[in-house]
Amino acid sequence: MKVGVLLAAGSVNLEAAYSAARVLEELGSKEVVIIHTTSPGSEENARRFERWLRSAGLKVERASVKSDAEAGMEERLKQLRSVEADVVVVSPGGASLAALASRAFERIAHVTFPFSLWNGLHYPYVPRPFQKVYVLGNVKRSFTNLAKAFPEELPAAPVRRLVAGLVRKLNEAGGRCYKVKVVLSAGHQEIVNVATDLCEGSVRKLAEAGTTAVRSLGYLESQRVLERGSQSLVWASGLLPIRVEPGKEYIADSSAIYLGALNLHVARVIRLRTPRCAFYEMIHKYEEGAKRTKLDVIGLISKYLVDEARGTEFPSPTDLCDKAFFQSDPLLIHDKVILTEDNGIKMMWMASPLSKLARVESPKRARTVKEALEVEHYTYPFALYGLLQFYAMLKLVKGELRELGRELFAGSVEVDGEAVDEI
Fold first, then answer.
1. Which of 46, 62, 353, 408 lies 20 to 30 Å (CA to CA) from residue 244?
2. Is the pTM of this model over 0.90?
3. Please, which residues have CB within 8 angstroms of residue 198's CB and are 6 or more apart in sequence?
């Protein structure tokens, strides 16, 4: 069976084309025809997509259709009808090309995408059950797992890279639907032990796992095994959410980064700007965390959060944020919101004339299951990413501890009862 994939210009459409591999899996196909427009951006996407498909051993051909600027609808429809394909994936094609394809072909396929924290990733780095394949027209399905076939192209940021690599392992081990179990412990104290069915997942169950993790880390803090503040990792990972006003542009200090403000930026709930003072604070906290006798989990993950925040930089003096915010350029902070959990900064800012240019706000932690479920962006895809990110963060912390000659954390991830990763 030959699968056609429409492809327009733009990085979002190229990512959607990579996820069209889900249609190849569902139909058991190894033949692809890339149907792209003649615009330079579309042709470049087609070249990159072709290389990716060929690296997986698939048979690939290309067919071009004139762009909107070059031809009218009737001529473009005629060109599409000349392409031989048994089913055509419209998701990466753009509006006009997809509309024409619905007239040109009898069988149309669409691949869903969970968005949320999965923005910027594509198959096989998104859980297969989140990318359902819908086909309009009678098509015989014959599932073939292709997750191992494609070249490894992991993100550069360290935490996100670990999550993406872990999800690839999940897809390689699982079928159309699969169950994932995550277990994490510190010494004899269990932190997380949760199993979830990705096709029938319960966000409530993951929220319960988050509240359990908060209690467990709190117990370890009370026993002076972990440094105070380690509970923040549950929110930093997204396993539990924070609440802020959506649609705003926030300038975050390190305390807001430690509570997961970066997650809201990735999920496009807010636009986040990270000032240089926050980078300075996180690097300093990492250096201090590596020296302490008690284990400072947030300090040890700080180095990696610095890399995760790259691309959101905002100019500020390189100093502690409680000083740097008040030295910032008033023109740059106008109509933005300072996001901090530091009550000292909040009180000083509200007493400052700068408060007329930018207000200050604190992220609100969801501490109970009820509070978590009331947060609009806290969906099952968000919470599952948070669970896997929590695991990835503790795996990175364990690596830091090993460098210091110390051991504490252990854990594993299973797919349908089989271990696919351990820390």
1. 353
2. yes
3. 127, 128, 129, 130, 174, 177, 178, 179, 180, 384
How do beta strands 2-7 and 31-37 pair?
A: parallel
Which residue type, as a one-letter code, is found at position 203?
V
- Work out the number of other CB atoms within 10 angstroms of the CB of residue 364: 14
Query: Rounded to an integer, what is the distance from CA 212 to the centroid of its chain?
Result: 23
Tokens representing residue 222 in the block: 């009370």
Residuewise pLDDT in 10s, the chain (423 residues): 999 999 999 999 999 999 999 999 999 999 999 999 999 999 999 999 999 999 999 999 999 999 888 889 999 999 999 999 999 999 999 888 999 999 999 999 999 999 999 999 999 999 999 999 999 999 999 999 999 999 999 999 999 999 999 999 999 999 999 999 999 999 899 999 999 999 999 999 999 999 999 999 999 999 999 999 999 999 999 999 999 999 999 999 999 999 999 999 999 999 999 999 999 999 999 998 888 767 899 999 999 999 999 999 999 998 999 999 999 899 999 999 999 999 999 999 999 999 999 999 999 999 999 999 999 999 999 999 999 999 999 999 999 999 888 889 999 999 999 999 999
- Tokens at 87, concatenated: 């089913």
Q: Which two tokens stand for residue 396?
A: 């990175």
CB 196, CB 206: distance < 8 Å: yes
Give Cα 395 to chain centroid, integer Å. 17
Secondary structure (3-state) at 34: strand
CB-based burial label for 132 (10 Å; 0-12, 13-18, 19+): middle
**3-state DSSP of 309-378:** CCCCEECCCCCCHHHHHHHCCHHHHCCCEEECCCHHHHHHHHCCHHHHCCEEECCEECCCHHHHHCCCCC
Nearest to 244 by CA among 360, 80, 385, 413: 360
How far is the C-alpha of 361 from the C-alpha of 312, rounded, in Å?
19
Contact 422, 394 (CB under 8 A): no
Tally the C-alpha atoms within 13 A of residue 410's C-alpha that lie toward its C-beta. Answer: 7
What does the DSSP assignment read for 278-290? HHHHHHHHHHHHT
Rounded CA gap, 7 and 98, in Å? Answer: 9
Rounded Cα distance between 309 and 33, Å, is 38
What percent helix, strand, coil does the chain show, rounded to 5?
Answer: 45, 20, 35
